[in-house]
Automatic annotation (TrEMBL), chains A, B:
It comes from the Bacteria. Residues 7-61 form the HTH lacI-type domain. GO terms for molecular function: DNA-binding transcription factor activity; transcription cis-regulatory region binding. This is Putative LacI-family transcriptional regulator. Gene3D superfamilies: 3.40.50.2300, lambda repressor-like DNA-binding domains (1.10.260.40). CDD domains: HTH_LacI (cd01392), PBP1_LacI_sugar_binding-like (cd06267). InterPro entries: HTH_LacI, LacI/GalR-like_sensor, Lambda_DNA-bd_dom_sf, Peripla_BP_I. Keywords: DNA-binding, Transcription, Transcription regulation. It comes from Sphaerimonospora thailandensis. SMART domains: HTH_LACI.
Length: 331, 331
DNA sequence: CCACATTGGCGGAACGTTCCTTCAACCCTA
DNA sequence: TAGGGTTGAAGGAACGTTCCGCCAATGTGG
C-alpha cells in the first residue's frame, strides 16, 4: 500500500545521484548533457513513475497549460459541435495542452474569467458579449469561421470554404431547370452570410431567381414547415430545396410530403450541414460534409502553434468541404 | 498601453499598505481580520483588477483545479453527450473548477495521463481499457450510470432510473394488446442492461412475449431496418416498437413504412433516448427525456462535493426520467 | 607548463500562492 | 500596574519546476 506523495524531480535526482537541475535538463532535452546521462536519468525517472507536476511547471513558465473552447449558447446540442470538441481535445492533448470547455455564461455580466493560455471560438456570433470578454483576457483567440464584428482581429482562424461548398451543391442540384429554394440562418455568422452570398451569386450567374427563407440556426420544425410551404408556392416553381441547418432537412422532407411533393421524384431536398441522422433515413439526404472533427483539430493545432511561437499570428486556414450525394437528390 | 505583467497579491498588498498575507486572508475570508480591513483590501484588489493565479494556488494546494470528463469513443457524436458536457462545464465553473475534455485515446496503450483532481465517466463501457487508466490516477471517479466491471468501486455515481423510465414507456404503449418489440444496445453498459431487464420483467408481468433485437449503441440505419423487418415478422403481431438509441427511431419509422405499416395508425413507435431531431419530424416521436444537461450538472456537483470533502465518497444519486408523449404513439 | 576554451553539472533564485508561527498592541481584571 | 488573553497583522517557509550563473574538471594549443 504505497500511499505516498507523488514522485518529484528531487526524488528522481536523489535516486540518480544527481541534482534536480540535471534531471530537469535530462528529461526536457535542454542543457548540455551527454546522451549517457540523459538516458540513465530518464530510465530512473520512468522506473520511479515520475510525472511532472503541471501546476509547478505552469507557474514557473507563466502559462496555464490549457486552452479553452467556447460555443455560443445557440449552438449547443448540435452534433457538429460535439465532434468539433472531440477533435480539438485530441489535438490539444497531442500538444500537451488541456482542453477546457467554456460554457456560455448564464449571467452575461460577471463570470469568472477562465484561466487559459488561448481560446477557440466556434462560430462567433455577431453581438455575442462573450466575444469581448474573451478578447479582454489578452490571450490569443482562434475562431472557427470568421468573426463579423467590425474591426475584430484575432490571432488565427480556420474557415470552411462555404462558398465553394454552396456552389458545388447548387451545381449538383441544377439539373432541373426550375428554382432552388434556400432555407438559411441569418447573417450574424459568416457561415450564414457566406452561404447566402454564394447562393445569390450562383442564382445570378445561372439565371435563376434567388429564393431565400430565414430559419433559425437551431432548427425548429415549425419554421421549416412554414418556409417550405411558402417556397413551394413561389411563382416559377421550385425543383429543389436546400435546408442549411443541421436537422432541418428531415423536417423539410416531411413538410414537402405534406404539400404533396415526393422526394426525390418530385422534389430534390438537400441539407447543407451533414449529420449521421441524415444518413439513417429511408431516403438518405444529400449534404455537404464540413468535417467538424477536422475543424476542431485544425483550430487546436493552430492555436498551439501560435502559443509555441512557430505559427505567425494572423494565420488563416481554409478547410475544404465535400459533397455527399445521397438518394434525396439522385436524379 | 498597459503592457504590464498581471497584478499579483504582492501588488495589491503594496497598494493597500499591508502584507500579502493580509490580502490573501482578506480575499479568501480566512484569518482574523476586521470587516473594515477586508472590505478596504477587496476594494483595492477589485480596482487594480487583481485575479488570482491558479497555477500558484494549485501548486500550493496540491491540486490541479480541473476535473475531467471522459466519453468512451463509441458515444461520440451523440447530442446527448454534448448536452451533458455543457451541463458539467457549467457546474464545474460554479465550483471554481475547469472542465477538461478527455478524448478516447487513439493509442490505447500509452497516453499521457491528464492532470486532474477527479474525473467523470459518462457511460462506462464494460471492457474499456481507459477505465483502468483513469482509476490508476488515484483520483475520485464519478460515473454517469453504473460501471459493470466486476469489483469496480468508484467515488460516486449518478444514474438515471431507466427501469422506471422503461416501465412508464411500456405502460404508455400497452393500450394495444399485441407485442412490443425492443431494439436495444447490448448489456455492456448499465443503460442497455437496465432497459433490457426492465423490459423483460414488464413483459413477464403483463403476459407479453419479450422481443429483443440487438442494435448498436450508435445507430446504424441498416441494423434498424433489419431489426424492424424481423420484428414485424414476429408471430403474434407487433403493435409497437421501442428503439432505444438516439436517432434509431426515425429509421424505425421509415423501415416500418417500407413494410407497409403506418405510424401511429398502424404501429406505435417510440424512442428511448430523446433528442431535438425527434421533435422536428412530421410525426414527432415519443421518447423518454433522460435530461443529459442535468446529468452532467449533477455529476460535476457530486465530484466537486467529494473533492471539497463535504460529500461522502460512495454517494449515489438517482435522476428521474420523464416520458414525452408525442404523435408517434397517440392512440 | 601555462592560458584558455569547453564540457558536465550544481546551487539557488524565482514564479504567486497559502498557511503556520510569531509578535506587537491593546484591553481587561486582580 | 503586572499578568494574561485577545485582536490584527506580518514574516517566511513551502509547493515543484525552470533557468541563469557559476565552477570544477578536462581537454588543447603554443
Amino acid at each position: 500500500m504505497n500511499e505516498s506523495r507523488p514522485i518529484t524531480l528531487q526524488d528522481v535526482a536523489r535516486a540518480a545521484g544527481v541534482s534536480k537541475t540535471t534531471v530537469s535538463d535530462a528529461l526536457s532535452g535542454r542543457g548540455r548533457l551527454p546522451a549517457a546521462t540523459r538516458e540513465r536519468v530518464a530510465a530512473i525517472a520512468r522506473e520511479l513513475g515520475y510525472v511532472a507536476n503541471r501546476s509547478a511547471r505552469n507557474l514557473r513558465g507563466g502559462r496555464t497549460g490549457a486552452i479553452g473552447l467556447y460555443f455560443p449558447a445557440r449552438t449547443i446540442g448540435l452534433e457538429y459541435y460535439m465532434d468539433l470538441a472531440i477533435g480539438a481535445a485530441e489535438e490539444a492533448l497531442a500538444h500537451d495542452l488541456a482542453l477546457t470547455l467554456i460554457p456560455a455564461p448564464a449571467d452575461p455580466g460577471r463570470t469568472p474569467p477562465p484561466h487559459i493560455d488561448g481560446v477557440m471560438v466556434s462560430d462567433p456570433v455577431l453581438g455575442d458579449p462573450m466575444l469581448g470578454t474573451l478578447t479582454d483576457l489578452r490571450v490569443p483567440v482562434v475562431t472557427c469561421e470568421r468573426d463579423l464584428t467590425p474591426g475584430a482581429r484575432h490571432a488565427g482562424r480556420v474557415e470552411s470554404d462555404h462558398r465553394a461548398g454552396t456552389r458545388t451543391l447548387l451545381d449538383h442540384l441544377s439539373g432541373r431547370g426550375d428554382h432552388i429554394a434556400l432555407l438559411c440562418p441569418g447573417e450574424e455568422t459568416s457561415f450564414g452570410l457566406d452561404i447566402r452570398t454564394a447562393y445569390r451569386a450562383w442564382c445570378a450567374d445561372n439565371g435563376r431567381e434567388a429564393l431565400v427563407y430565414d430559419v433559425p440556426f437551431v432548427c425548429d420544425p415549425e419554421d421549416v414547415n412554414h418556409a417550405v410551404a411558402e417556397a413551394l408556392r413561389a411563382p416559377g416553381g421550385v425543383g429543389a430545396i436546400v435546408s442549411v441547418p443541421d436537422g432541418g432537412a428531415t423536417s423539410a422532407v416531411h413538410a414537402a410530403l405534406q404539400q404533396g411533393r415526393h422526394v426525390p421524384a418530385d422534389l430534390l431536398v438537400a441539407s447543407y450541414v451533414d449529420s449521421p441522422s441524415l444518413r439513417g433515413l429511408a431516403t438518405p439526404i444529400t449534404a455537404v460534409d464540413i468535417a467538424p472533427r477536422e475543424m476542431g483539430r485544425r483550430a487546436a493545432r493552430l492555436l498551439a502553434g501560435i502559443l509555441a511561437g512557430h505559427v505567425a499570428p494572423g494565420t488563416v486556414e481554409i478547410l475544404p468541404t465535400e459533397l455527399m450525394i445521397r438518394a434525396s437528390t439522385s436524379h
